[in-house]
Amino acid sequence: MKIVKTIDEIRNIIKEWRKEGYSVGLVPTMGYLHEGHGSLIEQSVKNNDKTVVSVFVNPTQFGPNEDLEKYPRDIERDSKLVERIGGDIIFNPEASEMYSSAGFTTIKVEGLSEKLCGITRPTHFAGVCQVVSKLFNIVTPDNAYFGLKDFQQYVIIKTMVDDLNFPVKINPVEIVREESGLAMSSRNVYLTYDERKSALSLSIALKTAKSLISNREYNSSKIISEMKQIINNYPYTKIDYIKIVNTTTLNDIDYIENEKYAVLLAVYVGKTRLIDNYVCE
Ligand code: PAF
Questions:
Q1: Using CA of residue 179, residue 245, residue 238, residue 231, what is the dihedral sign?
Q2: For residue 145, is it within any domain?
Q3: CA 190 / ligand 1 centre spacing (Å)
Q4: Is 156 in the pocket of ligand 1 (CB under 6 A)?
Q5: Are residues 200 and 121 part of one domain?
Q6: Start-to-end Cα distance in the chain
């Protein structure tokens, strides 16, 4: 397993791989890898001859008052995880390498980027689309793997790839949870002991939604109001949003009938903003 820092070097390696006829999988990450990333890497290793894991804390997807500076970083720990699972390369460029040109070009997936997380993070998805399309152009993967915890991100990237005909297959990978039910996230490291207990309210509220729906409660506002009650009962929590949406348009669903739906939520626990979801397709 090798760590590559420059675009030229990764391009040369991929050129050699292509000469051998190897297929390439890409797992884009911001590092501080956990078992959730591990399951993305596993899928890639299983389904491609070669796997590149990018580790890059992308500045363009952070807002002015967000956690860019304090976002956790540990490339040695990341290398061990990638090596253990069988990834071939970590692509770990500096920001100056990724953004060496003037950077006038952004990509906006209209209609999907402004809602849900886009309300509190208005520039976030333009930054995600920018860096992901750069990575696609640099690595030219056959397959790319994205976790379903960031369901809105997955839908936006899938839509961008379809709209702009990127020659890559987007593979969604299920959320990995700790035994407690907490969805794995690099940002969980910010949580204090007590906040961690409160963070369980997200998965508990989602479980409740699932059971209400399976007991034929299809009225979204009733489901959401039960979820709010659960989360508000825990200290340190502040709900950003809880929504039930169509899985393609991300438009609100008032009444769940035969639609494919996702129950999505974002909640501050202390200062940490956590997201989680339950998707039914
Ligand atoms: O999901 C993430 O970790 C990031 O948004 C991504 C896709 C690696 C782009 O920086």
A1: negative
A2: yes
A3: 18
A4: no
A5: no
A6: 37
Residue 68 Cβ < 6 Å to ligand 1:
no
Whether 174 shows a pLDDT value over 90: the answer reads yes
11-32 average pLDDT score = 98
State the distance from the centre of ligand 1 to the C-alpha of 92, rounded, in angstroms. Answer: 13
The CB of 28 under 6 Å from ligand 1? The reply is yes
Q: How far is 153 from 161, CA to CA, in rounded Å?
A: 12
Print the domain residue range for 164: 2-173
CATH code at 136? 3.40.50.620
The 10s digit of each residue's pLDDT in 35-64 is 999 999 999 999 999 999 999 999 999 999
Query: 185-216, pLDDT tens digit by residue?
Result: 999 999 999 999 999 999 999 999 999 999 99
In this structure, the answer to whether residues 84 and 206 fall within a common structural domain is no
**Co-location of 147 and 67 in the same domain:** yes
Cα–Cα dist 182/196, whole Å: 8
What is residue 257's predicted lDDT score, i.e. its pLDDT? Answer: 84
- Catalytic residue numbers? 37
59 touches ligand 1 (CB under 6 Å): no
User: Which residue minimizes the CA distance to atom 9 of ligand 1?
Assistant: 128
* DSSP H stretches of helix in the chain: 7-19, 35-47, 75-85, 95-98, 117-120, 124-139, 151-164, 193-214, 220-232
One domain for residues 196 and 137: no
Residue 281 falls inside a structural domain:
no
Residue 76 has pLDDT above 90, yes or no: yes
Protein residue closest via CA to atom 1 of ligand 1: 29
pLDDT of residue 281: 87
- Residue identifier of the C-alpha nearest atom 3 of ligand 1: 29
pLDDT averaged over every residue in the chain = 97
